[in-house]
Each structure stands twice: as C-alpha cells, then as structure tokens.
C-alpha cells in the first residue's frame, strides 16, 4: 500500500492539486477514527474538507494555483465566484457563520464538479483498493444499503484506514512535500510548507513581549504619528501576518487602535517602507532586516491589497 500511495501522490503529471487534497482528507479522516472498520464516506463530506483546504489557500494565503488564469482549477473558480477574489481577514468559521447557504452551495458544487477524475483515479493497484466508489457497487448490492449510502460515496477499506492511521506522520510528510513541490512553481510566498501543513485558522502567538521594545524605539503610532498616552497600543505586522507567517521584530510596529483596524491584513502605503527600514537601521535590527522591498512587492503580487494612504493620514506621519 505504501508503494501505491507514493505512486499516486508523488508520480505522474498533475494539472491541479486535487489528489493531494484527497490524500490529506483520507489521512486526516483515518487518524480521527477510533475503530478500524470499513467506512462509508459521502462525497459531501470530502467536499466539505476540500472547501476548507482551498478556501485557506485562496482567501488567506493567496496561493496561485496556475499562472494561467484560464487553467485555474474549478474549486478555485467556485470559491472566487462565491467569496470574491480579495483577501478575507475573518476566520473560516466567522466568515461562513452568517453565510451558511453559500457554504452549502459551494460544498454541493465542489461535490458535483471536482471529483469526477480524482476519486476514481486515486487507487492502489488491483487487488487492494483503498476504497470502493459507489459506481463499483452493483445495483443489486446497492439495494440493500441504508438510504444515506445511496448518494455518492466511497467505502474506505479497513486495511487502508489502518495503514493511513499507522503511517500517518510519514505519509503526511510525503504528501506535504509533494504538494509544496507543485505550488512552489507558481508561488514566491515565504513559509510555503508551513502554510500547506496547516490550512486552518492558526493559533496566533501573543505579541506582548514586543510591546516594551517597540515603545522604547518610538512612543507614537507608526502610521499616523499620534502619541499613545494612555491609549491602547496595538502591534501590527507591517507585511501582513498571513503572508509572512512569523512574528519577527523587524516586521512589527506599534499602532493606535484606529490604524491597526484600518490596516488589518493589508499592506501599508509604499512610502512606509523607507520609514520601517530607517527604524530597523537606527535600532540595530539590520541583522534581521531582510529585504522589505522584496517582501512587499511579492506580497502585493500575491494579491494582498495596499491600504489607501488617506485612511492612515500618513502625510502627518512622515
Ligand atoms: Zn495611528
């Protein structure tokens, strides 16, 4: 089975990443099962996870699946159709909280339009298939199945489930590597592998430890120049966190609540690059002062928006 898994994940040419998404679903599903047995899994359940994986890739990390827009995988077209093409700051759960109908429609469309090739193809050789899909079950057998299994589904073989469960760590590593190999061709994003590994809302670290040091450097809002006095001080990622994916002092600035709210996960106006670079030079952060210009340009190219300069009243700040 190992051979078959690697063959399907690592070999062959791909026009999209569906087989990786399906493999991830099967691995995570198997790991979550306490009892080893044959399992009936509906297409709907797989589509629900597909939406989640690709929603993060499209709406949070702004991955490019293909340079050619006409070759964009259907799942991305569907997400763009219903969720737009802009970066989405809310968490996955919060975003769909009052859009349950849209979520349902998306899942249903993914189920109908994305699985025709990938589900029948992702199989081990001959005698030990990972699963049966419902077309392979004869009409007479289907008659005796409970009504819910009449819908489109696969029946995951208990041997495959046990194998995915036992080898979870290793197979996941192989899978993430192959997925990253595919996406690195079209993405210049930092921490690509970490982003693919997670694909859910991350637990963000507290930035409190940076507060004191940032205030010692400058006691005013980095963007509008307003002095803090007793007001709440926020810590902002100059290059958005969702892109940079780490908390490093060279990229952190102090901001008033107003500017922090406006800036959110967007890029600041371009003239602030000089300001943060000078700050980093003046405070001995050059050691960590990577090429902010390059990060900025790549982040913009990836699809993150630049905040309008009037909104931050930046003229008074520079
Ligand atoms: Zn401010």
List the helices and strands and how they pair.
Elements: H1 2-10, H2 18-32, E1 39-42, H3 43-60, H4 74-83, H5 92-97, H6 100-113, H7 118-121, E2 131-133, H8 139-143, E3 153-156, H9 158-166, H10 168-183, H11 192-198, H12 208-217, E4 234-237, H13 241-244, E5 252-255, H14 257-263, H15 272-282, H16 292-302, H17 314-317
Antiparallel strand pairs: 1-3, 2-3, 4-5
Bound molecules: zinc ion.
What brief labels describe this structure?
mainly alpha, DNA Binding (I), subunit A, 2 domains, two-stranded antiparallel sheet, elongated, disordered C terminus, binds zinc ion
Walkthrough of the structure:
The protein has 318 residues and is mainly α. The protein folds into 2 domains: 2-198, no CATH class; 208-317, DNA Binding (I), subunit A (Orthogonal Bundle). Helices cover 50% and strands 6% of the residues. It has helices spanning 2-10, 18-32, 43-60, 74-83, 92-97, 100-113, 118-121, 139-143, 158-166, 168-183, 192-198, 208-217, 241-244, 257-263, 272-282, 292-302, 314-317, and strands at residues 39-42, 131-133, 153-156, 234-237, 252-255. The strands form 2 sheets. Strands 1-3-2 form a 3-stranded antiparallel beta sheet. Helix 2 packs across helix 3 and helix 2 runs antiparallel to helix 10 (168-183). It starts with a helix and ends with a helix. Mean pLDDT is 89; it is low at 314-318. The structure holds zinc ion. Zinc ion binds at residues 221, 223-224, 226, 255-256, 258-259. Residues 221, 223-224, 226, 255-256, 258-259 line the site of zinc ion.
């Amino acid at each position: 089975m190992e051979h078959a898994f690697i063959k399907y994940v690592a070999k062959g040419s791909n026009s999209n990443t569906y087989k990786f998404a399906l493999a991830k679903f099967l691995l995570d599903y198997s790991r979550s099962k306490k009892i080893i047995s044959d399992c009936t899994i509906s297409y709907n359940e797989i589509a629900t996870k597909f939406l989640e994986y690709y929603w993060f890739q499209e709406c949070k990390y702004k991955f490019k699946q293909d340079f050619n827009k006409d070759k964009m995988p259907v799942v991305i077209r569907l997400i763009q159709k219903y969720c737009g093409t802009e970066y989405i700051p809310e968490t996955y759960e919060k975003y769909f909280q009052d859009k349950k109908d849209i979520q349902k429609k998306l899942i249903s469309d993914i189920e109908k339009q994305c699985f025709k090739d990938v589900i029948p193809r992702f199989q081990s050789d001959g005698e030990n298939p990972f699963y049966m899909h419902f077309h392979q079950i004869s009409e007479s057998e289907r008659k005796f199945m409970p009504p819910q299994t009449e819908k489109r589904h696969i029946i995951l073989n208990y041997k495959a489930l046990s194998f995915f469960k036992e080898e979870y760590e290793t197979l996941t590593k192989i899978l993430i590597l192959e997925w990253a190999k595919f996406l690195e061709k079209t993405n210049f994003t930092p921490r690509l592998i970490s982003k693919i590994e997670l694909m859910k809302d991350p637990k963000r670290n507290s930035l409190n430890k940076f507060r004191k040091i940032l205030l010692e450097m400058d006691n005013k809002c980095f963007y509008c120049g307003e002095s803090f006095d007793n007001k709440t001080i926020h810590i902002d990622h100059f290059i958005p966190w969702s892109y940079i994916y780490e908390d490093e002092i060279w990229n952190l600035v102090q901001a008033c609540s107003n500017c922090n709210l406006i800036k959110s996960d967007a890029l600041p106006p371009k003239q602030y690059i000089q300001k943060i670079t000078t700050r980093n030079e003046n405070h001995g952060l050059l050691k960590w002062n990577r090429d902010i210009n390059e990060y900025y340009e790549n982040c913009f190219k990836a699809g993150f928006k630049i905040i309008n300069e009037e909104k931050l009243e930046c003229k008074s700040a520079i």
